Amino acid sequence: MRVWDGRYRVERTLGEGGMGQVMLARDILSAERPVAIKLLLPEYRESTSDFMREYAVQRRLDHPAIPKVYDFGFGEHAGREVPYFAMDYVRGIPMSNALMQMRDPNVAYAWILQVLRGLDHLHRAGFLHRDLKPSNVLVAFDGNHEDSAHLIDFGIAIAFDETPEELFIGTPEYSAPELMSGAPFDVRQDLYAIGLLVYEVVSGRRPWLGEDPTDLYNKRMYQGYEALTADMCSRPLAQLVDALLRPQAD
pLDDT tens-digit profile of 151-189? Predict the structure, then answer.
């Protein structure tokens, strides 16, 4: 096993995507505590300030549904120095994978509740996640509802008082129309993503297919979707999803 930055004994790579990589390691200075090390890949070093911003946002959060972050530093990866931060290691698999294995949608409701609690904490801290999707939720099938899901990846989280970027940033398949159009944002944009997530849990598919931002924006604003039926879920839950996915936030 190699030692990262003189402190963390790396066991294996947990995942890689976007601009970063995550490794499972043991903190030598803290009784071999398991931690997840998130690092910025060398080819994206110009995004170091954004990576530090992600750390700063997550550092302000303290909730069971959000991994707690610890140290920030620089270590060597692929022959180059890259920034990293250490955070709690949480067991589980991405919800995107879990949905393909899940036989009973009721199992996922505990996950959604945990995500909502984490979102509430994030919103009360003054931030919008902006990238809530199944791959950014880690879930466990262990039956422990109080520790069953964790919200991760705050790379594009933004304070409510900040001005939206001129270009859309996020994942079109799980973004509210206001985010895709660059309009001012508030907590409702993350709740729209919850609506998309619940619809997918119940039906096994997304309400609107496709990946093109313009096409998805037009579909969400001007086209309906196949409604959830009584044999899929209760009427109140179907009504909640309909409310969350209305084209106009108001």
Answer: 999 999 999 988 888 888 899 999 999 999 888 889 999
Give the sign of the dihedral formed by CA 102, CA 107, CA 112, CA 114.
Answer: negative
Cα 232 to Cα 40: distance, rounded to the nearest angstrom: 42
Catalytic residue among 27, 71, 88, 131: 131
Burial class (CB in 10 A: 0-12, 13-18, 19+), 49: exposed
Whole-angstrom distance, CA of residue 154 vs CA of residue 18: 12
| Ranges 17-26, 96-105, 112-121, most confident | 112-121
pLDDT tens for 193-234 read 999 999 999 999 999 999 999 999 999 999 999 999 999 999
Phi, psi of 238 (to 5 degrees): -60, -40
Contact 133, 197 (CB under 8 A): yes
Q: Which residues of 188-204 are buried (b: 16+ CB within 10 A; e: fewer)?
A: ebbbbbbbbbbbbbbbe
250 annotated active-site: no
Tokens encoding 178: 């206001």
Report whether 115 contacts 98 (CB < 8 A): no
